[in-house]
Amino acid sequence: MKEESLRMARQVYEIEQQCIAKMADYFDEESFCKAVSLLKEAERIGTSGCGHSGIMCRHFVHLLCCVEQPARFISPAEAVHGATGFLQKGDVMVFASRGGKTKELLPIVDICKAKGVHIITITENIESPLAMQADVVLKQYVNRETDRYNAQGTTSSTALCVIFHTLQTALMEEIGFSNEQFARIHPGGAVGERLNRKGGETGQ
Predict the structure, then answer these.
(1) Which three-class secondary structure string do you get for 21-82?
(2) Are residues 136 and 120 in contact, defined by beta-carbon separation less than 8 angstroms?
(3) Phi and psi (nearest 5°) for 43?
(4) Is-contact 88 43, C-beta < 8 A?
(5) By three-state DSSP, how is residue 119 classified?
(6) Angle subtended at Cα 167 by Cα 165 and Cα 171, rounded to the nearest 5 degrees
(7) Helix-helix angle 3-23:155-175, to 10 degrees
(8) Rounded to an integer, what distance in angstroms lies between the CA atom of residue 139 and that of residue 126?
(9) Residue 204: pLDDT band by 50, 70, 90 thresholds?
(10) pTM score, two decimals?
């Protein structure tokens, strides 16, 4: 392997570490609390995004389902062909778009508005169309992507993932989700084995 390739690979840790450390400066407690409250009160939660943002949205949906919060990823393509029927008045739709201008998402906003669905937008551009029409905006910060051309959705995916993790962590506390509940719906794998072990281990 070329030495330059190794240098770039090692640099990834530094770039993403710096991004996560800086993200704390953009943590808006008021907006965050409102977002968590909306998620807590929603009977159903939808998420949508394109590309890497969409992949992270799917991850968030899985986290929500793991704490028994009904959620699904709504593909931007399927959203305008009936999939938004999943959402009802008072539910929440979470949009993820670094630039806040993803054209595939804008028609979904109109549907959500018409149905009385609350909108949470996660974006770097708080003056973007998706941000301006949201009930809550969570600021995404990205220093730079990890590749040479600052093009691939690497650091930006990590930043979005961290925001989803903050929401999930707080939501679990707000709804009082217990280890016993998680053990019941997650019997598989090493986590399921630990949670369901006789005596009920908790902790790390």
Answers:
(1) HHHHHHCCHHHHHHHHHHHHHCCCEEEECCHHHHHHHHHHHHHHHHCCCCEEECCHHHHCCC
(2) yes
(3) -75, -30
(4) yes
(5) strand
(6) 115
(7) 40
(8) 7
(9) very low
(10) 0.91
